[in-house]
Amino acid sequence: MPINLLPCSAGIGLRGPHYREVVEHWPALGWVEVHSENFFDGGQPVAMLQQVAAHYPLSLHGVGLGLGSATRPDYQHLASLKRLINSVKPASVSEHLSFNHSSQRYINDLLPLPYTHAALHRIASHIQEAQDMLGSRILLENLSSYLTYPGNEMHEGEFLAELVQRTGCGILLDINNLYVNHINLGVDYNAVLASLPAAAIGEIHLAGYSQGEGLLLDTHSQAVHPAVWQLYQQAIKQFGKRPTLIEWDIDIPALAVLQAEAAKAQQLLEMEYALV
To answer: Is residue 3 part of a domain?
Structure first.
């Protein structure tokens, strides 16, 4: 299966408000990521994305496959994703490690998983089925969460490491999610990072959270917070340089603001490279 081919530089999430500006001016961007499902219907959006992919390394990031669900991956969803992969030839394909459907219904959310051996066995089979059909290695993203399941038999880092071992998938390490879980749930981010196989980490996400009543909300609506930058520095010191994305999905600012955030990540990547 193709491995992650993104450059070890900083990129941005390309969202609707910036499509026109990007294709008219082709600004300096290390790479870009889009949400896969926005392009499943083909037509002009895919034609535009093909133009983008010709100028920048492209990452397809899914939000709807729900590989952590109780039932098998939806065939039509996989078929649509495979068509898109064939059309735009992305450098990377990723998904959230989440629950979102049963045999009766779909939920438009990224729900957390129980970290048990039974869930591990089921989810590994879903990942393998998806990768076999797509002909592509998938990077799986760790979630932000506001609850933990009773009866967990391992923590998230151990669960992800086991999935990598069983399926050959990769990891998309979301630093903001990890920090949010640390504050909200007391997750030991050092233990999670220590469990992750460095070779499997193909991409890192950075984003901004919002402050709720007694907890942090993973809204992707602000600039990256200082504590998240600090944890990011810790991660790249441990794992080395990794392709790093600035995510901003709500209250999306001007493209120049995203570029400035990406420049901060790029500076940290280059500092880490100089130390190696």
So the answer is: no
pTM score, two decimals? Answer: 0.94
The residues pairing with 211 across neighbouring beta strands, listed in sequence order, are: 216
Q: Give the strand pairing for 244-246 and 10-13.
A: parallel
Nearest to 142 by CA among 70, 69, 203: 203
Q: Is 1 a member of any domain?
A: no
Query: For residue range 7-46, what is the model confidence (pLDDT) as tens digits?
Result: 999 999 999 999 999 999 999 999 999 999 999 998 999 9
pLDDT in tens, 219-246: 999 999 999 999 999 999 999 999 999 9
Question: What span, in angstroms and rounded, lies between the C-alpha atoms of 180 and 210?
Answer: 10
Report the number of distinct structural domains present in the chain.
1
Q: For 47-89, what is each residue's pLDDT tens digit?
A: 999 999 999 999 999 988 888 888 889 899 999 999 999 999 9
The domain in which residue 176 lies consists of 10-275
Q: Residue 176 pLDDT more than 70?
A: yes
